[in-house]
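Lab meeting notes turned into a lecture example. A postdoc, R.K., suggested we walk through two folding results consecutively so the class can see how the record format repeats. The first protein's sequence and structure tokens come next.
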Amino acid sequence: MAIFIHKYNLIRPKALEMQNLRKKFPVLKQCIYANTPATGLLSEDLMEWRQEHDLDYLIGGSITKQKNFESIGDVRDAVGRFFQCISENVALVPNFTLGLNMLLEGLSKDNRILLVENDYPSLNWPFETRSFHREYVKISKHFEEEIYNRVESGKVDVLAISIVQWINGIKIDLDFIKKLKNDFPNLLVIADGTQFCGTQSFNFADSGIDVLGTSGYKWLLSGYGNGFVLVSKAAKERFIPKFIGNGSVDRNVNLRNTIPFCKHLEPGHLDSFNFGSLQFSLNFLETVGMNHIDVQLQKLSQKAKEGFSSLGLLENEVVERKVHSTIFNIKGDEQLFNKLLDENVVCTRRGSGIRLGFHFYNTENEIDAILDIIKS
């Protein structure tokens, strides 16, 4: 069996209920899982696929693996279809961090970079350790306006930002990014989508983003060891890629001097187990329907924001913004954190508070339960 042919017989979205989907994630029977911002859950279906994959490898050895290598293009096609990006502009990478570091080796140090204070370390640190000239904006109610003013000043060549902030869940206005790119077409926009991709439909080609990098183990529910980088046509002209290897030419040495841009980000073997998991999860999310997921997450976000706000647990920057993700950082000390853990709420400490995040497999009743625990 070729590993990328998925034995997936899900009910079509109209007949699919979120409550039934919960049964596919055994962890949810044991706890209130509010930690997708750290690690997305493994579904029973994906586990079964992985077992079949390794059984095929056990029996077939190199014959099976060769077929798998030849099917990697199907993964790129799946990523491109899901995020509306042509396949040749998709690079498969083990994680966002490695993908960004490979790209930045080919970006001129003359570029002036605009970053967000306290953004994800794997986004900010690669710029900070490469001697780029950098400026920073602070997260605020109107931080999009601050970004616009900085870019308008003419002193910014590259904006690098997480679509959703990892600590408090603040989400950049995607319409703002489109306007920014439209008004300043020479601006290179690099985005970390790790806390965003898998939460709503997204059209990369129409987004205004030039580089979107993502790890698949959070909201895409793909497990570890897989991710991707999407690049625009304009972005390719800004980088001189430095990485190269046998994987860049798909083991055909005659192609050494004709390597496409994205293949420079794939210099070595791509693991069929990990990237097959990514393709499987994308198929799963498509079957559930991103429109259904989006509606569910909007409900959870509104419910959680209203509940945490009523208890005075959120930063003003979060309360005052119109749109938010489903990631929240609530005010709380070690005692409250341990109380939540004792009540089987899986969450984590981030920054000065406690971070909770809700995916489509969470429920409004679970949020009520968390609020009751806090009140007690």
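The second example is placed directly after the first for contrast:
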Amino acid sequence: MSETVVPIRDMSKAEWETRVDLAACFRLVDLYGWSDMLATHLSARIPGTEDHFLINPVGMMFDEMTASCLVKVDIDGNVLSDSEFGINPAGYTIHSAVHMGREDAGCVMHTHTAAGLGVATQQDGLLPLTQMALAVIAQTSYHDYEGPAFDLGERERLIADLGENNVLVLRNHGLLTVGRTVAEAFVWMFRAERACRFQLSFQQAGAKAVEIPQAVQDISIERTKKAISATGHRPIGQFEWPALMRKLDRENPGYAV
């Protein structure tokens, strides 16, 4: 891991570790080409609290995000940490909805990518064309576009649409993923983004699809759910995150300050 500093005074070790993971996640999002200048947000609930979470300040690029610059807010939108930057109201609306509605939502990610939006604008959404898509479809819900997310009333509809799933396609807007940890949310986003990219690649070819029979779809989804569960051979994010951190330390260190 990158060189770290002593946590900010009066900050718990758990909060600092969450800050480091979330700052790393911002830089990984940029590294993988998913950032949108100053738009979109990532957030993480602070362990040991019910309504405090961290979110990015408006005015910093994802590739320069650090643990100490992240802004602490509560569910009501009150800023609880010193920052020279504010927060985006739309980002607060979306992320506070998920943190309010899902007790297990340790991290929430939202992106505006070409592949994600390419699928989010399609009437039928993510199609069962590939093994990768089936793994994501098993965890995917949809939320209709209501304009820029400044209306707090949208929060109830958003969380109702998400339900217990970990992937939400925001129609005409982008992708959103949820995880108990930063690692889980990131790997769900990787899987969703990849499935969308493969779908667009196929569609651009203009060829006829080899359709996967419904029975095989069902078997694939069930097997995937088992494989990435806590008792499976590849719990989501558990093995990927340490490897991703090593990659980040080679290519863009300095996030843990």
